[in-house]
Design a protein that fits this description.
- Strands 1-2 form a two-stranded antiparallel sheet.
- By secondary structure, it is mainly α.
- It has three helices and two strands; from the N terminus they run ααββα.
- 48% of the residues lie in helices and 10% in strands.
- The protein has helices at residues 10-17, 21-30, 47-56, and strands at residues 37-39, 42-44.
- The chain has one domain (10-56).
- Keywords: DNA-binding.
């Protein structure tokens, strides 16, 4: 990860993927979506992780 890369919020990822925010939380609960990280009490995503996850989908 580039140290200058801005982490994405749940809203950022939902917009990028074109899915509702609730879907991301469901995916996280079922461990099926892109990898998210807790930063304090906030959920954040590394853009490269999201892009990698998208490429892994059939």
């Amino acid at each position: 990860m580039n140290t200058l890369t801005k982490l994405w919020t749940v809203e950022d990822v939902a917009t990028f993927l074109g899915v509702p925010v609730a879907t991301l939380y469901q995916w996280r609960h079922h461990r099926t979506g892109p990898r998210g990280r807790k930063i304090g009490r906030h959920l954040r995503y590394v853009p490269e992780d999201v892009l990698s996850w998208v490429q892994e989908q059939e």
